[in-house]
């Protein structure tokens, strides 16, 4: 079994127990990254670890709930003490939340969507920005959704959380554009065959969809040291880097 060395790039992937995060974690590990795999479901993380080891890679499993902010801070300290840096951060974990009119959304479920989709990603930036800055080429990718741009009826909590995520990541990219080697981008995966997609579109035949494994090689390219774009959205359905735009009021 391979173990990590100082030459490995260190990559942290959230939501690595299944779906898109799992495929990204495996792809990064196969390409030689030491993967720090975060999610709540220990069994899913252990299955990922088996597959990474079978491919000759290495991983550290971190079963935790991302709504536990002090746990994110502790993880930052542990990674700092062990490696002194982080090379790749993939903020992928997310929840769909309720699909219902805004006025009918249970406040507890609203809070959960915001805590996972926004607050946890901010806490990750807060804890890991100093470590990304220690990397010769720190790369951060956060997973958004086309829903952020559609204002579609009944998708309120999810769409609001992803729109906020986009503004946060673009702001983070701007803060680093000229002051560090950190580059931060958004990823729009489009419709992929996962549990979340099945929850959102229960009537859909999942076999018509692309898979997280189809997407993963493109994420490997996004986090490569030679990839220097920042503050953009990589749109997997069109294979294009998009400049996010918001209509501005007349000055
Ligand atoms: P998924 O299969 O439901 O996986 C979600 C992942 O997030 C799981 O690994 C889950 O792990 C983790 N997670 C959720 N809540 C967590 C918490 N409180 N603490 C720690 N981990 C948590 O969904 P997916 O489709 O792969 O989605 C991944 C990302 O892609 C999400 O941000 C989603 O919004 C985005 N996206 C997906 C699609 C699509 O078509 N699939 C389209 C656009 C955007 P545990 O349950 O083990 O904690």
From TrEMBL:
Superkingdom assignment: Bacteria
The EC number(s) this enzyme carries: 1.-.-.-
Species of provenance: Hartmannibacter diazotrophicus
Ranges for domain Ketoreductase: 9-168
GO molecular function terms attached to this record: oxidoreductase activity
Name of the protein: Putative oxidoreductase YciK
Recorded family membership: Belongs to the short-chain dehydrogenases/reductases (SDR) family.
Residues annotated as signal peptide: none
Keywords in alphabetical order: Oxidoreductase
Pfam families xref list: adh_short (PF00106)
Keyword Ribonucleoprotein among UniProt keywords: no
